[in-house]
Amino acid sequence: xxxxxxxxxxxxxxxxxxxxxxxxxxxxxxxxxxxxxxxxxxxxxxxxxxxxxxxxxxxxxxxxxxxxxxxxxxxxxxxxxxxxxxxxxxxxxxxxxxxxxxxxxxxxxxxxxxxxxxxxxxxxxxxxxxxxxxxxxxxxxxxxxxxxx
Length: 149
Prior knowledge:
The protein is α+β, with helices and mostly antiparallel strands. The chain has a single domain (about 20-145), classed as Roll (Diaminopimelate Epimerase, Chain A, domain 1). It is built from two helices and seven strands. It has a seven-stranded mixed beta sheet with strand order 1-2-3-4-5-6-7, with helices on one face. Strand 4 (about 110-120) and strand 5 (about 120-130) form a beta hairpin. It is globular.
């Protein structure tokens, strides 16, 4: 009888530990385009869905997902700066978000990653936790500083 209970507990435990595949979804407003000093720039906003673990192997997966999203940007080279903000999905930051770009101020605690391309070349890729940069995916080094937008 003890063996049956033990097997039951293991089975239930395993069922509850299923992970949800990590993916990025567009966060309204999806895109913000603007000119600075006569040069075209663009920012895309995303929210994450699924399980993200703060481990180097997950950073590598995220970098691949970001590269795929960037590759789908028409004329990436045409933007002097192209940035991506990736937020964790919350009760506010999700597919129903309607506060606009300005409404994202104050949500640094929910920011998972900030990526920037300069003339089509990735030059910044920060992984964030609780509003602090903890990893630079471009250099592959651990970091520890507050993120400033």
